[in-house]
Amino acid sequence: MDRNLTFWVKSEYRNTKHRYPNLKRWEIIAGILSQLENVGYASRYIRKDGKLGWRATDEMREDLFKQEQAAIYRQYDRLD
C-alpha cells in the first residue's frame, strides 16, 4: 500500500474499529479499501511477488493536494 493510502486507511481504521468490535482488523481494513475503491480513490494491482497490492489513484492525490492547498490558504487568512 502506498503512503497516501496507508495514511487514510489508518485514520479511517481508528475512527471505525470501535463500531465493529466483533470484526477482525483485516476485515475492517478490507471494508475501508473497498469503500475507497468504490469512490475511485484506491485501485488494486498485482505486485511483483504475485500478491495483491493497493495504491492511491491520481484522483485521490489530486483531491488531497487541493485540500492541502485550501488548508494552507486558510492558515494564511487567519494571520491577516
Would you identify the CATH architecture? Orthogonal Bundle
Please, how many helices? 3
Q: Give the DSSP E fraction (strand runs of 2 or more residues).
A: 5-15%
State the CATH topology. Answer: Arc Repressor Mutant, subunit A
- The value of Rg in angstroms is 16 Å
Return the average pLDDT rounded to an integer: 91
Sequence stretches where pLDDT stays below 50 over 5 or more residues: none
Overall, the morphology is flat
Q: Indicate the percent of residues in helices.
A: 55-70%
Side by side, the strands of the main sheet go 1-2
Layout of helices and strands:
Elements: H1 3-16, H2 25-38, E1 42-46, E2 52-56, H3 58-79
Helix pairs in contact: 1-2
Give a brief outline of the structure.
This protein is of the alpha+beta class. The protein has helices at about 5-15, 25-40, 60-80; strands at about 40-45, 50-55.
Protein traits:
Arc Repressor Mutant, subunit A, single chain, 80 residues
Q: What do these coordinates show?
A:
The protein has a two-stranded antiparallel sheet. It has three helices and two strands; from the N terminus they run H-H-E-E-H. The chain has a single domain, classed as Arc Repressor Mutant, subunit A. About 10% of the residues are buried. It has about 80 residues and is an alpha+beta fold. The N and C termini lie far apart (about 40 Å). Helix 1 crosses helix 2.
